[in-house]
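forwarding from the other thread:

> can someone predict this with heme C?

sure thing
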Amino acid sequence: MTNMRMTLASLLLITVAHVAQAATSPAEFDKSLLPYLQSHCVRCHNAEKQEGEFRIDKLSKNVGTENNPQWLEVMERINSGEMPPKTEAKRPTAAESAQAVEWIAARMREGETARMAARTRVTYNRLTRDEYVNTVRDLIGVEFDAKDPGNFLEDPEWQGFERLGSVLTLSPSNIEKYLAAAEVILNEAYPPEPPPLKKGQTPPEPFGGTKPAVA
Ligand code: HEC
């Protein structure tokens, strides 16, 4: 029971570590950007009127996390002064537009940072014993008995996770075992001496053959 709870806890831990943090909250959006969009943009980009076939009212409030291409486009159009169109009577001040642009840009940066942080770190782990056996079989077709007491040490288990980088390290004595295993496996795959000829068997032709490749 304790064990199961521990496993569940570590499972949750691992899951949590991979969830990207939302860059902003809808409440923050409502306070900081929505008033600007409502005053200057939504009128032409809503359900009834979709200038440029673009709806602003449908975009996600999770700026920096969702609808990134659309929010970048919005940012650029405001930044370049294209939007709202110059023909608009009630135009935002330059400061208001700059504030909107900066707010979106900051959320984009936060989103990027969160995505970078959520990327799994590249680590080099040794294979588990089973993975090793499978890999050797797939690569060179040799069935290696890693469970033979003389061969590899048992993989340490950590709360039921065999495949855990921090636990799968290589001690010097383990490295010796790997080198010895490689020797055994390669000898089996590529015997140093050709197998003795059976009665009546002709020796294989030398590399390159004795006949011209093209007749
Ligand atoms: C008076 C109407 C009007 C207002 C107000 C307006 N737009 Fe536009 N918008 C247009 C028209 C017309 C187009 C299509 C022509 C173009 O692409 O320049 C357009 C196009 C766009 C596009 C490009 C869509 C695409 O994918 O090609 C974006 C993004 C955009 N507007 C954002 C905004 C933002 C942000 C605001 C507020 C700051 C805004 N618009 C305010 C009329 C408006």
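Residues 1-20 have pLDDT under 50 and may be disordered. thats all i got for now
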